[in-house]
Amino acid sequence: MWLPEMTVPATIPKPPKPAPSEDLRLHLESLAEELVSMQLLALPELNARYGSVGREKCLQDARHHLACLADALNAGDSALFASYIAWAKIELGNRGIPAEDLAIQLDLTRTLISGRLDGQLSVTAVEYINAALAGLPSFPGDLPSYLPPDSPHVLLANQYLESLLKGDRSTASRLILDAVQTGVTVKEIYLHVFQPTQYEVGRLWQINRISVAQEHYCTAATQLIMSQLYPQIFATQKGGGTMVATCVEGDLHEIGVRMVADFFELDGWHTFYLGASAPAQLVIDTVIQRRAQILGISATISSHLDAVGELIRKIRANPACWAVKILVGGHPFLVSPELWRKLGADGCARDAQEAITLANSLISEEGGK
């Protein structure tokens, strides 16, 4: 949800512009078509095994591979591409596609890229592919559950997840409300029930145990049940801090940053949660109007990093936003712990509770200057 490491830079670095990878982005579709043609020549048995449906699936995978490679190049971090390939190995493997096929596709991608991209971009892209290929054999073929038996409130979390997977939102809601009534805190519900079950839902989809529809249902139901806890959340006595939280434009995965905003509310902050895919100007206007001390920005996948960097640059360029401290979060920052520095943010934290600790530290440091 949020990033590892709680480090506050002494000075705010000037965020660099993303590395150019537009050649790859602009020609992504034609490159994907060419890559699939090369793959079918290298593995003619794919036609017999999967037919036209298989070709379309190969094309879809090729688009994803190339897009994630472009994202990693823009961020200047090969770990982002390697992490995607590790994810793809599990996702494809649980759908009957062996790692050997993925390795062949990566090898063909390397050949294609080295012949089609120019200069240093080609060299760097090949380096990123080489790193992913080198790691592929050691990447796990499966993921452990996010609900290990010794985790706090694991019985409640399993009952909650089971109800959601059955499509029984009413029982899931009753489980949570009853737990709160018997003394489980809202923070405990968020950290030990909502967060791990959302991760587990994602894992179950990745290993082909549930459908996309079930995944969407579980997320929507959890968001609704979170709202049922708002009487307790918003009853918290407020201090003087103000926090704005948002997903960047194009990012529709809002539940993580919503949990972060709720934690700030529980901690006594005034929060203004802007939700999914908020336009940059809306975010800037809200920061100014609310005189926010903290802006929390979420990016779920690496393709959103450009939007994060652009929003931060616009915030830094606006004199009316000089005082706001920027925290960023999301999976790409977990993979690349120094990425927040490259984008010009003020810090990051592994989860909502650490985000509050870091925010309080930043505000306290600012007040002491």
Description:
This protein is mainly α. The chain has three domains: 22-138, Globin-like (Orthogonal Bundle); 154-206 and 210-231, Methionine synthase domain (Methyltransferase, Methionine Synthase (B12-binding Domains), Chain A, domain 1, Orthogonal Bundle); 237-368, Rossmann fold, CATH 3.40.50. It has helices spanning 22-26, 28-42, 45-75, 78-93, 99-116, 119-135, 154-165, 169-181, 186-206, 212-228, 230-233, 255-266, 280-290, 305-317, 331-335, 339-343, 352-368, and strands spanning 242-247, 270-273, 294-298, 325-329. α3 crosses α6. It is globular.
Provide tags for this entry.
369 residues; Globin-like; Rossmann fold; 63% helix; disordered N terminus
What secondary-structure arrangement, pairings included, does this model have?
Blueprint: H1 22-26, H2 28-42, H3 45-75, H4 78-93, H5 99-116, H6 119-135, H7 154-165, H8 169-181, H9 186-206, H10 212-228, H11 230-233, E1 242-247, H12 255-266, E2 270-273, H13 280-290, E3 294-298, H14 305-317, E4 325-329, H15 331-335, H16 339-343, H17 352-368
Helix pairs in contact: 2-3, 2-5, 3-4, 3-6, 4-6, 5-6, 7-8, 7-9, 9-10, 12-17
